[in-house]
Amino acid sequence: MLIAAAEAAFDDFLNRCAATGFWRPDSDPLITALSGGPDSTALALIADKRARARNIPHRALIIDHGLRDNSSQEAQQVAVLMREKSIATDVLKIGLPRPVSGHQEWAREHRLKLLAEAAYQQNSLVLFGHHGDDQNETVAMRLSRHSGLRGLRGIAPLRFYKGALFARPFLSYTKADLSDLCTRFGVNFISDPSNQNRMFQRVRWRSLLAADPDLARQLGQLSRAASSLSAQLDGQIKAWINAHVRVIARLRASCPYAVFSAQPEAHRHHILAALLAICGHSSFPPSMDAIAELDNRLASGQPATLASCKVRYDKEWLVVEAEFGRKPANEEPLAPGGIGFFDGRWMVWAGCAGKVRRLGSFALSDKDISQIALPEELFRLPKKLQDMIPILQTLDDRLLPPHFKSNSLLMGNSKLGFGDSAADKHPFIIWPAPMDRPVRL
Q1: Among 79, 184, 238, 263, which residue's Cβ finds the most Cβ atoms within 10 Å?
Q2: Last residue of a domain, one of 192, 226, 260
């Protein structure tokens, strides 16, 4: 009965993902992020069974992080177990030397990066085996750090991350449920010894919550309430931005300061947080205390920098701009036909091999830059913002300017778009990446 219930829950989750319009079951595959533990193993088994029934391509993807001496052997063992169940499975290895410290965070960052890169190529939905126990632990840790409303919603069932769509279908299940599913399928799983290491805060919270089921239940209720309230607030902020803010290529956002300043204080702070997320490039959002201080500086006419953005009150306008140089962009290699994520704000596609770099990373004269065929809107931007436009450097050192997808350059209440009827004729196409955010189901 548990298997049938899990299949029904998984089908319902996929239907809700499809209803968002960001994932299409008739054309977009599924990828299960597989660690070999009971959570992701149960998910891979259910996902593959339902994907076959619905004629959706599915594969499991194992990331070998190399943190343990036998990690490669474990990855291959898990792949063999999956293939015995006729589940298509690939193993990708993090090809970088591990750092001296911060191993867990380093492994997580690169694991998610590899999974996102796999998702870009076919607009795949990436599935993770997080469950209700994970959710309660996450909310407890964030509550202990005095997180705000958005932090207390915990793990989002569906969210964008670095341009990819990540999903957690089994947040309503417990770890015991998922272990039981593996047993019913007759499939073994491996145990990560770090899950017992009390050096990690999550493990300590896990022990505490296991001893107090009532606290765990209350944390689940808190997460659901915070999610509902956050979704309503996000909807209001989005509507306000669409009505009043003009955004150019996730590089510059502006609106009349009088309209902004007329909003209640809490509303202003959330608007600023949203604009910083649009134009910025920070791994973590600024605290609400930092945003309140920014709001006070703006009211006194002082410019400020926060979250890799410059913010100012300029001739009756509130202006938020990406800050060039605070975080240098890495070069992004692209294979022919490949899709990548660049500089925290762009999705990029190349018809030929090369590497994507910022325009400002090349030693070009004003004449050289004027000959690059950029849309007129971008030539009106300050030079430091123009310098952040992606350029493709081919293997023979040609510099190819970007072609923008239709209606992708401007956001908010901006009306101008750029057609892409001849997009297939362009060797380098870019469009603003979706912002890292939860997607309401």
Answers
A1: 79
A2: 226
